[in-house]
Amino acid sequence: MYIPRGGAATTPAVREQTARVRAARERVPRNVYALGFVSLLTDVSAEMITSVVGYYLLVYLQVSTITVGFLDGLYSAIPVLLSLTAAYLADRYQRRKLLAGIGYGLSAVSKLGFPVVGRSVSGLGLVQGADRLGKGLRTAPRDALISLSTPASIQGRAFGVHRTMDTVGAFLGPLIAVVALGLSVAATAFDAVFVVSFCIATIGLLALLLLVADHREPAATPRKVPFRAALGLLADKEFRRVCLAATVLGVAWISDTFIYLVIQQRLALTAVQYALLAVGTSGSYLLLAVPAGRIADRIGRWRVFLCGHLALLVVYLLLAGPFGGPVLVCVTLAVHGFFYAMTDGVLMAHAGPMLPRELRTAGLALLQSVRALGAFVSSLAFGFAWSVMGSREVVGGYVVALLLALVAAACLVHPEKGTVPRP
C-alpha cells in the first residue's frame, strides 16, 4: 500500500487531531475572558468617575485649569511610584493575582473618598492618588497574566479581547453615571455617582478573587532574579527604544479630561451631556478593539500603534479647527476611540513577547511607567498653557508636538524589530 510522504501524519484522524491542537492554540484562553470581566466591572466604576471629574473640578468646584492639569497629571503619574516595584515582586514570588487584587481593592475604597473630602483640592489629590496607586499595583500584573496565559502568535488578539470587554465597562460607566445624576437632587448628584462607583468596583474585586487563575511557572523553572535585573531590561536596545518612543508620544498626548473639557467649553454642555462624551469614545473603541488586535498580529503591532497616533492627530486637528456642532463632536469622539483601539492593548502585545517570562510583569510595568511620566508632563503643560491662552491655540501646539513625536517614534523603533518571543 502506498503511504504518502509524511506517513501516518497525513491520515484523516491525525489531520483532525492536528487541526484540533492548532485550533486550541489559536483560541483565546479562559483566563483572558475572566480578567476581561473583572476589567469590565472595574471600568464601569472608573469611567463613572472619569466621565464627570473634569466637569466636577472645573465647573462645579470652579478650580483653575492649572489645578485640573496638576490633578490630571497626578492621575497619570502616581502609578509610576509603585508599579515597577509591585510588578517585580509579583514576578519574583509569582503572586500576580495577589498584587492585582490589592490594586483593585485600593481603587475601590478610594471612590468613597470623593464625598468625604468635598471641595478640598489637597483631599481630591489624595483620593485620586490612592486610586492611581491601585492602578499602578494592578495593571502590569493583569497584563502579564494575559501575556503569560496566551500563545505568542495570538497576543494581539488576546489583548484585543480583553480591551473589548474592558471597553464595554467604559461604555456603560458614563451611562450609569448619567442615570445616577438624573435620579439625584442637585446637591447630592455627584455623591450618588461616587457611591455607586464604589459598589461596582467591589463586585469587580470579588470577580477577580473567584474567577481568575494565577499563573505560576513549574517549581524547577523560576529564577530568583535581583531587582536590578528588572531595571536591567533597559539594557536591551530594542526594548529601551520602545520605552523611549512611548514616553515621547506620551508627552504629546492630550488626556481625555482635557479633550472633553475643550468640547464642553465650545458647546457649553451640562453635566449630563458632558458625561455622555466618554460614551462616544468608548463606543468606537469597543467596535475596533478586537479587529485592531487581529490586524496587529498580521501586519505588525508597532505599525498599528503608530497608525493609532495618526488617528489622535486627526482628533487634535478637529479640536483646533474653527468648526463645531454635534456632528463634528461625534466624529471627533469616534476617531478618539479608534486611537485607543489601535494603541492601548497593541503596545502591550508588542512589548510582551520581547521580555523574558520571569520578568514579564516588571517589563510591562516599566513601559507603562515611563509612558505615564510623559503623560504627567503633558497634562501639566496643557493646564498651564490653557491658563494663559485659548484652548484652541494650545491644541494647535499639540498638533506640532505630536507630529514631531511620531517622527521620533518611527525612527526609534522599526516594525520588524523586537517581535521574536523570549523564552
Automatic annotation (TrEMBL):
GO MF, any single term: transmembrane transporter activity
Membrane topology value: Multi-pass membrane protein
Cellular localisation: Cell membrane
GO CC annotation terms, alphabetical: plasma membrane
First-listed, main subcellular location of the protein, grouped into a coarse class: membrane
Boundaries of every Major facilitator superfamily (MFS) profile domain copy: 31-417
Membrane-spanning parts: 32-58, 70-90, 167-186, 192-213, 242-263, 269-290, 302-319, 325-349, 370-389, 395-413
Pfam families xrefs: MFS_1 (PF07690)
Alphabetized UniProt keyword annotations: Membrane, Transmembrane, Transmembrane helix
Coiled coil: none
Protein name: MFS transporter
Species annotation: Actinospica durhamensis
Lineage: Bacteria, Bacillati, Actinomycetota, Actinomycetes, Catenulisporales
